[in-house]
Amino acid sequence: MSNKQVKQLDRVIIRFAGDSGDGMQLTGDRFTQESAVFGNDLVTLPNFPAEIRAPQGTLPGVSSFQVHFADHDILTAGDAPDVLVAMNPAALKANLGDLPKGATIILDTHDFTARNLTKAGYDANPLDLLGDANDPLGEFSVQPVDLTGMTVEAVKEFGLSRKDAARAKNMFALGLLSWMYGRPTDPTVAFLEKRFAKVADIRDANITAFKAGWNFGETTEAFVVQYEIKPAPMEPGTYRNITGNLALAYGLIAGGVQSGLPVFLGSYPITPASDILHELSKHKAFGVTTLQAEDEIAGIGSAIGASFAGSLGVTTTSGPGIALKSEAIGLAVMTELPLVVIDVQRGGPSTGLPTKTEQADLLQAMYGRNGEAPVPIVAPQSPGDCFDAALEAVRIAITYRTPVMLLSDGYLANGSEPWRIPEIDDLPTIDPAFATVHNKTVPGKRAKDGTEAPETTEFWPYLRDEETLARPWAIPGTPGLEHRIGGIEKADGTGNISYDPANHDLMVRTRQAKVDRIAESLPPLEVDDPSAKDGQGAKVLVIGWGSTYGPIGAGVRRVRKAGYQVAQVHLRHLNPFPKDLGEILQRYDKVLVPEMNLGQLSMLLRGKYLVDAIGYNHVRGLPLKAAELAEAIGGLVADAEGIEVNLHTAEEAIH
What we know:
- The chain is 36% helix and 18% strand.
- It is α/β, with parallel strands linked by helices.
């Protein structure tokens, strides 16, 4: 019987870090799945190099996976890890600066060789200095463990080469951490049995290594405390762990089902959007067709063709692909066909930081086309919210006959959280309302003898719905509805080619008015301002969009826990803005706009509403940090209310 101490915690942040070949993403994912099964709320942050194989043992080659899990509702993957599992010197050095004082570091001593230390830039082995006056790790609780050696010893019965045996060390580490935090082990064993079902020795070695890590935690005197984080209270329902890209794929499938349209994805693989293509290719049973095109332009071209033919056309990409697709998006604007364009943003410009996150494509989505080519823009706020955002993009595209831009990003795409699977009956029904009959009565022409021919009916492809300003959508081959469309300006109503200056002005204004009309269908914005109930009201508003929702929410919580008033509002619709946004902005003395760019939403808000939007901008390839953001919010509160703000009480409340 174990006599180890069990300590209750409300939240923990763990980061697994190692070489790109050490399986840190798999390890982190499995720990996440265990925590999801246990019932914790969680948010994850995978972080890996862009190079297919960065030099082994070097700082650029470090791959990490951070998971924040708790017994209550959380919003971010955490600013700083409480526990770092480092598989080599480079992993230690690359992540040491992120650790708070007192953090636990578990080191695989096997890889702290002279060669690896040199590659990581160490002059001396930090393990040799533990406990000395010059100990570089003196502020932390360090646990040196020969993870590799114990793994090789545990799996030697399977006759693997030393290299193959050592590769199971990530499962040993997972087993140890699973013991430390009371994670259920059955899901990981079942996963390994399925994943390596065709290679019995590899399967058994990984399972054995996993169990050996758990047993080591149970029996060793090095780890004397086991931690317990209880399940988080959640609304009743069926939950699963989901990434943003997976949620986007499911949202597109739901959009096809709810509209009755076959889904066609024309796409070219690009980080970090490729997983959407991979996932949708599995769902032919739901009427999904996927085409991996030869380039970005072919991808969107095929999607526009599918929309013309009566399907729900979709294309997925990242920022560089949007640049290539811009002319074709303009074609979809001109032809007024439904199209969903998904931009999973990454660090730029050019190739930039392909595996890092950023939200710097907002102005490109807004204005990155020639001519006046307005496009609605929708942005999800969390991995699970990607499902609803995709469904909303489908609704707008079909209802208003327009391409719609959906702006996700790398943090949402690869990050994960528990997601409550919605009831089918709760999803909106989307009516494509295909044109099936003539829609225009044309007077008969007068004959030479003075008699008038009877009225006739025709199909005019640019005759508009009075409520939405959408044009009719006629499937090619529908008898009597033959028509042509293309990229040259259309005559109002008939859709014939027109070079008339007045008509061009009318059509430009009409296409803009159609996008503006979308605001009529949007619900009022939800302003999170608890102080308004007391009749006081905060003087500072924090407004954001996209994946900044988590850091903003966590920062706002810190300020409120310290006893100060601050309001928050988050935008899903960025073009058009909700109708009540201007009135909301005018209520507050100070408006802070945190973004992972240099102030793109700030510029749009300033230009449209003449509000003195104050930017909080970091472009690091990483999510904003809640603690730093809280300090910025606190500074504005102090300025607006003429008081001193101390957030230390909030830190104590959180930890």
